[in-house]
Amino acid sequence: MANRTAGLTYIEKNTPLHKMTGGAKLLMLLFMSLAAMITFDTRLLVVLVVVAISLFVVAKMPIKEMKMIFSILAFIMAVNLVVSYLFSPEEGVAIYGSRTELFHIIGRYYITREQLFYQLNVTIKYFAILPLAMVFFVTTDSSEFAASLNAIGVNYKIAYSVSLALRYIPSVLREYHDISQAQQARGIDISKNVKLSKRIIGIATIMFPLIITSIDKIDRIAGAMELRSFGKHKKRTWYKARPFKKLDYAAVAVSLLFIVAAVLLNFVNGGRFFNPFS
Amino acid sequence: MNLNVKTIVAIGIGAALFFVLGRFAVVPVFANTNLSFQYAVLAFFAVLFGPIAGVLIGLIGHILIDMSWGWGIWWSWIIVSGVVGCGFGFVVRYAKIEQNDFTIPLIIRFVIGTIIVNLIGWGLIAPGLDILIYQQPVNHVFTQGLFAFVGNAVTTAVVGTLLLFAYNKAQPKAESLYKE
Amino acid sequence: MNPLIEFENYTFKYRAQIEPSLVDINLKIYPGEKILILGPSGSGKSTLASCINGMIPFAYKGTFSGSCRLNGLETAHQSIFDLSKTVGTVLQDTDGQFVGLTAGEDIAFSLENNCTPLHEMTSRVSKAAQMTGLLDEQLKSSPFDLSGGQKQRVSMSGILVDDVQVLLFDEPLASLDPATGEQAIDLIHQIQQTEQNTIIIIEHRLEDVLFRPIDRIILMKDGRIIADVAPLELLASNLLRETGLREPLYVSALKYANADIQPISSLSDKAKQAVNNWYNAANPPTVPPQNNPLLKVENLHFTYPETATKTLQNINFTITEGEILSVVGTNGAGKSTLAKLICGFEQPSEGKIFLRNADVTSQTIAERAKQIGYVMQNPNQMICKPLIYDEVALGLTNQVNSEKQTPAEIREQVEATLEICGLYPFRNWPVSALSYGQKKRVTIASVLVLAPKIIILDEPTAGQDYKHYTEIMKFLQKLQSEGVTIILITHDMHLMLEYAPRALVFSKGNLLADMPSSDLLCNPILSKTASLKETSLFHLAAECNISDAPAFTRCFIEREINS
Ligand SMILES: Nc1ncnc2c1ncn2[C@@H]1O[C@H](COP(=O)(O)OP(=O)(O)OP(=O)(O)O)[C@@H](O)[C@H]1O
Ligand SMILES: Nc1ncnc2c1ncn2[C@@H]1O[C@H](COP(=O)(O)OP(=O)(O)OP(=O)(O)O)[C@@H](O)[C@H]1O
Ligand SMILES: [Mg+2]
Ligand SMILES: [Mg+2]
For residue A248, what pLDDT is reported? Predict the structure, then answer.
């Protein structure tokens, strides 16, 4: 499966999140991410981060993996903070419309309270948006992805293409591996010893069989699917589908509340930012 | 929506290819800079199967890549992958070249077209979304966008052209096959 | 009774072709019949199947004339969906046929598309799984956890969930090991016994299909039907040889002995006597002496990074110069993996590989490629040039063998190799226009042209007809006499018996045996563990009371080679 080749795996567990249908989780993910994208209100963002982390806990995500996710994220954020500061040290001042200097570093680089607060907000925001989807992926069997997408209104054919992608990633990966080995045996060199232009042509030579097999495969798979009635009706049922239960409706409703809150706070704050400096 | 089965399968396989190339087939160029080729494949598939396939391959493939790294989903850039995939689909339609050769005028059109699409995607939309969602500093996001634009535009134009050229040559034309 | 499928003066031409691929087909198939379609590679068997299931005219572009009717209705007037209610198709390539993420989903696929409610779906899926002997817990397995034979059972169940009248199989045995292939044929037979379907099988492996009774054999050549007869009648005639196809081994043996052609179980005493006379007149050749060691594998272990169990463990063997050796065994035993290790595609976790007493374990792929050529199992993974000529010339222009050659020399060499592989007429075709068997030959040509010291061929006969495979094998034998060493990885017991005096037998990552091939297939216990199959020669010998079956086999091969 896709997640077998990657770091994270779906593991069957008995938690409320695992019991929820994929469709409900997908909607939750969508609404909460949207809320986090809309708002810059520090309080709401903190709430969203707390909810995200508690979801990880509820999902009984192994501590080791959580640590890994959050430490990589923290590292990326740290780099981002520095770079972003180097590019624009007065961004916060412009946003909050006041300037409280704390100290001077060098040249045009000052540390201001507004800048610190602004960068804190951006960081929290990333933490509210980025890891949320991982909860969905570790608690939902990939067999259920397509049914879930269809359940929330995505055209069933498009939903099925997601399932096909997950199905064929390991095949394509193995093929890529085999092909690049076979081509090396025939004198195609893509290592560091050759010129960049030669390397790009070498890569294209390797990609060619990969693409040709893929196109062949598309024909064969499409044929096999049509021969088993795919696309016959305007809808289809799903072997892995599960009906919405109370918990699912409740979760969706709660996550909708976050969007409402995000929009309302925009009015209350007179803008996306919560401004403690005025 | 009128999507034929072949397009659907192409989306699935295309996304799988996008994922594998973007995640595992990165070529280090010099310190800390990698070349990856998934946008060349995206362009290839978009030309063959149209803009709808382009959007979805970009979106699905990019979400899967982000997901497999395990630390989060970078929505703004995912959207851009979808947008450029769609754009590539309008540059050249393969139906036009299926029975002909991939000639110089078409190659020029493909190269210039994909450069423009990449410029709009990575040079404008990606920074725009980062500003809209995260309020990142303008010069920061545009510099980032510029780097992404250069890398992706070069690989799309060069490798994309090579792939289309070779593929076109590998396809039999109507009534062309006889034993010599 | 009305025919279920009826072709009348039917002709079909693919858009890319100038000549039609089916010419003037007249054929009637009645309900409940079991039909085998036979013919050389490229003779139009798959094309005929595509007309029955509706891929032609609905998915492949082309023009047709005449009539093709299913249950009395023109197929061209229906849709592919209408036709799929009557005809269920199992394609050769299980990777393409298996579209679900798990076995259960794949079996349910057509039910899902027909909007079957969930509760009904579950019960029908488990019923269909039972029919092919799949266990309930296997329904949760992904295709990567199932063996070749199990995947094929899934494909069959996926067709059987619908009550189709016709089951159409296009090369169901192509990538299965002999014993699994036999089980598949048996399963098809049982299903027909209980469900009374009409069965149409396309297959090159005639002897394996005849393991269970067949009503009629349709023989095709160059797009035409040249025979439509009962199996025994076909076997007794010389049509198979004339068409370039392989007879079952026992039939050839009976012909050599001038005995009447009958099924082994009902041989007359006269025939038995004739076989005995022939055997006593022939004298079994001796096993040839051994040369200098060339390739030595010592204590080899290997595990793929993403798997938990060892793919190969503790492998030891030596190959001498100018030997032809076969590597046989179950699906997934690690045969292709062994080839990859020898070529340096993968690095062993333990153990060493010697070439002429020099340790090459740490050499790169490119260095080893100068001496070892590997024709991979799947030809699509090797072909990287759009045109056949360029593909075969690629290794020479890249100077893989470190010889600088002029373009004229290259051209000469490439054309000579294309000739040997029967590809010269196609040299300017784009690769996509070739059939699987033809592509396989392109990859063989691209390795032969480099003149390596060791050639490893992974399933060289898959999808090949007898004529082409004999030509290639004759050429390989010539190379062998010049000192080239040849390793054949194969499920084809004929190939092993006929060309490779020595066999390495693998099962589940272990080297079970290293012995003369003629002895191997007469050893029922070893055959069983390695999922091999005794040939019909073994049964013929037993039936004729010949006790030394290996010697009988060797006599037979000797006779074959001299004919
Ligand atoms: N899609 C296609 N476009 C053009 N020509 C084709 C196509 N498919 C098959 N052909 C041609 O039609 C002829 C018959 O091919 P077909 O696949 O039916 O052969 P086959 O008997 O099934 O061979 P094999 O045993 O190798 O599978 C061949 O000459 C082949 O080149
Ligand atoms: N690239 C790979 N990554 C991980 N596992 C692999 C890979 N290739 C093969 N395997 C696994 O290793 C085992 C041995 O595979 P291998 O292809 O060597 O078998 P084989 O003997 O050639 O089988 P067949 O007769 O079906 O070709 C199988 O279980 C297979 O699933
Ligand atoms: Mg065929
Ligand atoms: Mg193999």
Answer: 92
Cβ–Cβ gap B180/C17 under 8 Å: no
Strand C324-329 to C485-489 pairing: parallel
Beta carbons of C95 and A217 less than 8 Å apart: yes
Q: Which of A262-271, C400-409, C460-469 has the lowest mean pLDDT?
A: C400-409
Cα(C197)–Cα(C188) distance, integer angstroms: 10
Q: How many CB atoms lie under 10 A from the CB of residue A104?
A: 10
Shortest distance between the Cα of C431 and any Cα of chain B, in A, equals 6
Question: What's the DSSP call for residue C455?
Answer: E
β-strands C5-14, B27-30 pairing? unpaired
Here the tokens at position C376 are 């991979």
pLDDT tens-digit series, residues A37-68? 888 889 999 999 999 889 988 888 888 878 88
Rounded to 5 degrees, φ, ψ at C359 are -75, 115
Q: Which of C432, C439, C442 is the best mutation test for B, with the most CBs of B within 10 A?
A: C432
ipTM of the complex: 0.89
Return the minimum-mean-pLDDT range out of C21-35, C110-124, C220-234, C266-280: C266-280
Pocket of ligand 1 (CB under 6 A): C 14, 16-17, 21, 39, 41-47, 60, 433, 435-437, 463
**Interior/surface letters C309-329, b for 16+ CB within 10 angstroms, e for the rest:** ebbbbebebebbbbbbbbbbb
Instruction: Using the predicted structure, report yes or no on whether residue A196 has a pLDDT greater than 80.
Output: no
Burial group, residue A230, by CB count within 10 angstroms (0-12, 13-18, 19+): buried
Which A residues 41-60 touch B at CB under 8 Å? none
- Residue A103 burial (CB count, 10 A): 7
Q: Are A152 and A25 in contact (CB under 8 A)?
A: no
User: What tokens does C275 get?
Assistant: 């076989």
- Ligand 3 ion local residues (Cβ < 5 A): C 46
User: For residue C457, what are the CA distances in angstroms to A184, A246, C172, C297, C340?
Assistant: 18, 60, 22, 18, 11
Residue bearing tokens 């793919």: C311
pLDDT of residue A10 exceeding 80, the answer is no
Q: How far is the CA of C5 from the centre of ligand 1 (A)?
A: 21
Confidence of residue B179 (pLDDT cuts 50, 70, 90): low
Alpha-carbon distance of B67 to B173, in angstroms, equals 41
Q: Average pLDDT of C63-73? A: 93
CA distance C385 to C394: 8
What confidence tier does B180 reach under pLDDT thresholds 50, 70, 90? Answer: low
Helix residue ranges per DSSP H, A15-108:
16-19, 22-38, 42-58, 63-87, 91-96
Please indicate whether, in this complex, the C-beta atoms of C306 and A5 are within 8 angstroms of each other. yes
What tokens does A172 get? 């394509």
How far is ligand 3, taken at its centre, from the CA of residue C437, in Å? 9
* A99–chain B nearest CA distance, Å: 17
Structural element, H or E, at residue C203: none
Burial A197-225 (b: 16+ CB within 10 A, else e): eebbbbbbbbbbbbbbbbbebbbbbbbbb
Nearest alpha carbon, ligand 2 atom 5: C304
Chain B positions in Cβ-Cβ contact with residue A77 (cut-off 8 Å): none
pTM of the model: 0.90
CB A114 within 8 A of CB A96: yes
Query: Is the separation of the CB atoms in A59 and A185 below 8 Å?
Result: no
- Give whole-number Cα distances, C114 to C54, C120, C157, C393, in Å: 18, 12, 16, 50
DSSP output for C93-149: -HHHH--SSSHHHHHHHHHHHTT--HHHHHHHHHHHHHHTT--GGGGG--GGGS-HH
> Which residues are within 8 A (CB) of C327 and not within 5 positions of it... i.e. 6 or more apart?
C335, C338, C339, C487, C488, C489, C490, C503, C504, C506
Tell me whether strands C293-302 and C372-375 are parallel, antiparallel or unpaired: unpaired
Rounded distance between C-alpha atoms, residue C230 and residue C217, angstroms: 6
